[in-house]
Write a structure and sequence with these properties.
The chain is α/β, with parallel strands linked by helices and about 350 residues long. It is built from 13 helices and nine strands. It has a seven-stranded mixed beta sheet, sandwiched between helices. A two-stranded parallel ribbon has the order 6-7. Helix 6 packs antiparallel against helix 7. The longest helix is centred in the last third of the chain and has 17 residues.
């Protein structure tokens, strides 16, 4: 088995967590969230709608040579489901080739070891990050907007390295849910009256909160759209499925996890998973995170956790990684914390 550079993948697994961590000068022609919405992402008492997200991404597409926005299909209510593809301008010129390499390595059909090694060196790491699958977990969709903006605008050496080494696929997983929840929250003119209490219906037209469990049968249009991109078109090496949890109790947990893991999973996958977790710990000021609610492998066994979200499908052959990250937001809009679920498809 030949893997895309393990050092590259391990480093890139931290991309979503660190891409916004170090300030850098933005390209002057890139519109900031503040300029677009009148608020920063994460400001108290502000939630952007999916309509606003779509308009903003299309504007960034027009302004940045790092970003291309594609419609991957329609939602259950007929909204366009968008995917932002972010990478360096040079990589965009060869995007079809990098997609083909990712697919060929994932399928491993008719490749010798030498050919696979050559493709792994030529290709780029393909990273999928989604957000907003559960509409009331508002942090996921909003971190996605912020991440796309940061990757389109930052000029620091680390971001430029990410752009050179990575093809980032950023997908809003539930357009209808974001539109419903944000509209309900922002309906009050007085910010102090804004609340998600009394939401009139669940945030997916047919299956509500169970849209994550739809990935085992791919019954809804949003699931179809994402599954097609994931497993028929791109076959990313990293799949990051972002969720959010409440403010009570443990609000962040991350690998490495304690044994035993699910015996249906290849031990190699678990070794890779724990390796990624260790890199997270080394990069993320672990002692500070522990004080803020982190629980690691000594407390929470997660290897045998039931499949959840769009990483449920890759459990059989990919590297699923689950973590929960806190938010410092004080107000109801983003109160609580978040968890992120990642799957790392094996590349043969």
């Amino acid at each position: 088995m030949v893997l895309i550079s393990r050092g590259r993948v391990m480093g890139l697994a931290l991309m979503a967590a660190v891409a916004i961590a170090v300030p850098a000068a933005a390209q002057t022609r890139i519109t900031t969230p503040k300029e677009q919405f009148g608020s920063n992402i994460g400001d108290d008492y502000f939630l952007a709608s999916y309509t606003q997200l779509a308009d903003y991404w299309r504007k960034l597409d027009a302004e940045s040579d790092r970003l291309v926005v594609q419609e991957i299909g329609k939602s259950a209510e007929g909204r366009p489901q968008l995917m932002a593809i972010i990478t360096s301008p040079e990589n965009h010129a060869g995007l079809a080739r990098y997609r083909d390499i990712s697919r060929r390595l994932a399928l491993a059909e008719g490749l010798t070891d030498d050919q696979a090694t050559s493709l792994a060196h030529e290709g780029k790491a393909v990273v999928w990050i989604d957000g907003g699958l559960h509409g009331t977990e508002v942090l996921g969709a909003h971190q996605l907007m912020e991440t796309v903006y940061q990757m389109a605008s930052r000029t620091d050496p680390e971001t430029l390295r990410f752009l050179n080494d990575v093809v980032l696929l950023a997908v809003q997983a539930n357009p209808d849910g974001m539109e419903l929840v944000s509209g309900w929250y922002m309906r009050e003119a007085d910010p102090l009256k804004r609340s998600m209490e009394g939401l009139p219906r669940l945030y997916q037209k047919y299956i509500g909160h169970d849209n994550n469990r739809d990935f085992y049968m791919v019954n809804q249009p949003e699931t179809e759209n994402m599954a097609r991109v994931l497993y028929l078109e791109w076959s990313p090496q990293i799949l990051y499925n972002h969720h959010q949890t409440g403010p009570q109790g443990v609000i962040l947990f991350a690998p490495p996890f304690r044994d035993p893991f699910n015996y249906n999973l290849d031990p190699l996958l678990m070794a890779e998973l724990d390796g990624v977790g260790r890199h997270h710990a080394q990069r993320g000021q672990l002692s500070d995170l522990v004080e803020r609610g982190l629980k690691d492998h000594r407390v929470l066994p997660q290897h045998d956790r039931p499949a959840h979200g769009d990483q449920g499908e890759p459990h059989a052959h990919d590297h699923p990684l689950l973590s929960r990250a806190p938010t410092t937001q004080r107000r109801p809009a983003l109160a609580g914390g978040a968890h992120a679920e990642l799957a790392f498809p094996a590349v043969h």
